[in-house]
Amino acid sequence: MKMVQTEEPTTTTESITEDEAALYDRQIRLWGLEAQNRLRNSSVLLVGLSGAGAEIAKNLMLAGLKSLTLMDHNNVSEGDRDAQFLAPVDTIGQNRAEASRLRTEQLNPMVHVIVDTDALESKDADFFEKFNLVCLVNQSYEQIERVNEICRKFNIKMCAAGVYGWFGYGFSDLLEHEFIDEVKMLAPSNSTEVHVLDGKGDGPEAKKRKVDEEETAMIKHTIDFSSWSDAMNVDWSRKTTLGKAKRSLTPAYFVIRSLLEAQKLGDKATSPEVISKAWKDEVERCKLVLEEQKCKPEDFMKFISGELGPVCAIIGGVVAQEVIK
After folding, report:
1. Which UniProt keywords apply (predicted)?
2. What pLDDT shows up at residue 49?
3. DSSP letters along 59-127, please?
4. Count of beta carbons in the 10 Å neighbourhood of residue 26
5. Of 309, 307, 249, which is closest to residue 282 (Cα–Cα)?
6. According to CATH, what is the number of the domain 18-165+310-324?
């Protein structure tokens, strides 16, 4: 029988309290009161309490959100002992989100923790409207694509992450991001003549040098993020992208891409033959030479099982930082 927490994150805006200001003092010094107040009024949905999911939950709780919804329909397994530190070892067989609740709340009692034990597939589009950001961990390619389309429809930011043994990935679709860049510009017309003295007074030895004064300009930039589908289906065969693919595509990209493709086959997702074919197809799609690849299936197949704690920590830290930003 499923246990579903019926609470929902509220959407009211509140100012930071004195207790919170004292608790988050160091963070406020780092990114300012306004940024901390935005965090304080944010509701985040985290789907997938795997090892990487636990790392993300930890970092978000310490940052100081308004509410964090933990969603997972899976039960705690023996494999979770390796990296999932939020679920105690004596909770094996219990729902993973429910088992992670107590330790998550203890990280920061000021953050409201909500638990949902439903499967992601059962949630319709309206469910996601109440969140400011959705983070999916170790979910299937199809579900990430579906949720990303919903989030874009409702103007909700989204992140995705996954860990496969020694390999991991992080994806961010923050829709549109605006930032201001401070640029120093020279103003030659306002040059100032400076006398450089050698210690003997303003005599013949004194040197004169012209120094250009600097003006600071604040330039606003806007970045449009790619959707999950666009990011995962770039046409690397075009002349404009082929050179970039050869220079910047890490070998791990093909590993992750092949694993995501293999997941579509369900029970056959862990088959070496299926993964090898998916890897080969992706390398060929990118118009790269198979023999030149540094990380082939026979090399990485032994390193993709389970979740490695340090990899979870790295992926969880990077993705959580994107959420906070």
Report:
1. Nucleus, Ubl conjugation pathway
2. 97
3. HHHHHT-SEEEEE--SBP-GGGGGT--SS-GGGTTSBHHHHHHHHHHHH-TTSEEEEE-S-GGG--GGG
4. 7
5. 249
6. 3.40.50.720
Q: What is the number of other CB atoms lying within 10 angstroms of the CB of residue 197?
A: 11
Residue 205 CA to residue 171 CA, distance in Å, equals: 62
Would you tell me how many other CB atoms lie within 10 Å of the CB of residue 58? 20
Tokens of 114: 């909500």
Supply 284's token pair: 């060929």
Q: How far apart are CA 325 and CA 309, in angstroms?
A: 24
56 CB-near residues (< 8 Å, 6+ apart): 46, 135, 137, 161, 316, 319, 320, 323
Residues of 315-324 as b/e, b for ≥16 C-beta within 10 angstroms? bbbbbbebbb
pLDDT tens across 256-300, in order? 999 998 888 776 677 888 899 989 988 888 877 888 888 888 888
User: Hey, what are 137's tokens?
Assistant: 């961990």
Radius of gyration of the chain (CA): 25
Distance, CA of 162 to CA of 261 (rounded, Å): 13
CB atoms within 10 A of CB 168: 23
- Hey, where are the domains in the chain? 18-165+310-324, 177-223, 229-304
Predicted TM-score (pTM) of the model is 0.80
Distance, in Å, from the CA atom of 181 to the CA atom of 52, rounded to the nearest integer, reads: 33
The answer to whether residue 201 scores a pLDDT higher than 60 is no
Half-sphere exposure of 196 (CA within 13 A, CB side): 5
Would you say 87 and 115 are in contact if contact means Cβ atoms under 8 Å apart?
no
Q: Which of 43, 104, 54, 46 has its CA nearest to residue 70?
A: 46
What does the longest C-alpha to C-alpha distance in the chain come to? 95
